[in-house]
Amino acid sequence: MKKTILALGALLLSSTAFAQSDLIIENPYARATPPNATNSAIFMAIKNTGNEDRTLVSASTSIANKVELHTVIKTDGMMKMREVNAIEVPKNKEVMLQPGGLHIMLFDLTQPLTEDEFIDVTLNFKNGDKEQFKAPVKKVMAGMKHKM
């Protein structure tokens, strides 16, 4: 009996160790879309609590036929989105994916993204690791400021 309990305890401890990650995904969300929109974006904070730099190389979700890593740059006084090959997440640092900056673009959505739904997201890292989570869909009016 004691051997069985010890074996179960060791198994639980080893599986917990494999499940832990140096990355913490905080406040992820996808932007809700109007009924006929075909594109959206995902935002979040990625914290790397480890001692090695990490590199996000791609992302995927079942809700979009194409997913790209993007940034926003200012060229000739205009803000333009550009695809990037990777997003570096330095050791012991946090990288913000946010409107007007780094983000994950969703193209050719399979359906509109409705507020209070959740979508599956997988982040793929250069070292082969994956982070999977559900991101809530939120109605966001970022950048829409009205002066009265």
Structure overview:
It is built from 1 helix and 10 strands; from the N terminus they run αββββββββββ. With 148 residues, the protein is mostly beta strands. Strands 1, 2, 3, 4, 5, 6, 7, 8, 9 and 10 form a 10-stranded mixed β-sheet that branches.
Fold topology:
Blueprint: H1 2-19, E1 23-31, E2 40-48, E3 54-60, E4 64-75, E5 78-83, E6 87-89, E7 93-97, E8 103-109, E9 118-125, E10 130-138
Parallel strand pairs: 1-10
Antiparallel strand pairs: 1-2, 2-7, 2-8, 3-6, 3-9, 4-5, 4-8, 9-10
Concise synopsis of the structure shown:
The protein is 12% helix and 51% strand. The protein is mostly beta strands and 148 residues long.
Descriptors:
148 residues, mainly beta, ten-stranded mixed β-sheet, 10 strands, 51% strand
Count of DSSP strands = 10
Which parts are unreliable, with pLDDT below 50 for 5 consecutive residues or more? Answer: 2-19, 142-148
Treating each run of at least 4 consecutive H or I residues as one helix, how many helices? 1
Shape: globular
**First-residue to last-residue Cα separation:** 74 Å
- Strand content of the residues, in percent? over 45%
Run of helices and strands: HEEEEEEEEEE
Computed Rg: 19 Å
**Structural class given helices, strands, pairing?**
mainly beta
Give the biggest sheet.
10 strands, mixed
Classify the helix fraction into a percent range: 10-25%
| Average pLDDT over all residues | 85
